[in-house]
């Protein structure tokens, strides 16, 4: 009888310990879920900058040697951020190249920023350079910082007074009717 009682108490204590551990795991999962949700919201915005926000001042140099700055971005200018090795960047790059090639804004009304260094950027720069100005910079470069870049690809249309009229991951931002909408 004492063996039976001892085993029942041991199984009860083991069940209680299991219950306490499960409560801890569930709490921990809730904390991680909140962090992941917040991160997903940041990534889905496309950038830290939202439509209506003003881009910070910056100065950079395009691969063809021309100066590019926040003051040189006229109203309607489209800025796209790409990163080598980014699957969605590779998927949207041809659409962006076609947009830049046929844009009524001309080559100066479209800016592509390739984030990376060395040989990894060569292929993207070669595809983009004939149709747009291209800036190559590291992730913490001046253009990426001016847009508070947080994800790739990111497309932005500049409105009046260095304000962003549309911004997001989707190339739909390239259409003028996307202005004032967060895509």
Automatic annotation (TrEMBL):
Keyword Transmembrane: yes
PROSITE patterns: THIOREDOXIN_1, THIOREDOXIN_2
Residues annotated as signal peptide: none
Domain Thioredoxin as annotated: residue spans: 49-183
InterPro entries: Thioredoxin-like_sf (IPR036249), Thioredoxin_CS (IPR017937), Thioredoxin_domain (IPR013766)
Gene3D superfamilies attached to this UniProt entry: Glutaredoxin
This protein's record includes keyword Transmembrane helix: yes
Membrane-spanning ranges: 6-26
Name of this protein: Thiol-disulfide isomerase/thioredoxin
Keywords associated with the record: Isomerase, Membrane, Transmembrane, Transmembrane helix
GO molecular function: isomerase activity
């Amino acid at each position: 009888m004492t063996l039976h009682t001892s085993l029942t108490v041991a199984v009860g204590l083991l069940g209680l310990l299991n219950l306490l551990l499960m409560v801890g795991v569930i709490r921990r999962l809730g904390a991680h879920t909140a962090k992941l949700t917040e991160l997903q919201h940041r990534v889905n915005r496309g950038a830290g900058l939202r439509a209506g926000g003003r881009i910070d001042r910056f100065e950079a140099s395009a691969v063809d040697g021309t100066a590019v700055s926040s003051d040189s971005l006229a109203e309607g200018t489209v800025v796209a951020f790409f990163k080598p090795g980014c699957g969605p960047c590779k998927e949207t790059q041809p659409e962006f190249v076609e947009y830049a090639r046929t844009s009524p804004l001309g080559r100066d009304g479209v800016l592509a920023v390739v984030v990376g260094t060395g040989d990894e950027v060569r292929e993207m720069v070669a595809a983009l350079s004939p149709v747009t100005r291209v800036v190559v910079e590291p992730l913490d470069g001046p253009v990426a910082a001016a847009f508070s870049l947080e994800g790739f690809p990111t497309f932005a249309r500049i409105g009046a007074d260095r304000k962003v009229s549309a911004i997001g991951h989707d190339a739909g931002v390239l259409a003028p009717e996307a202005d004032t909408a967060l895509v």
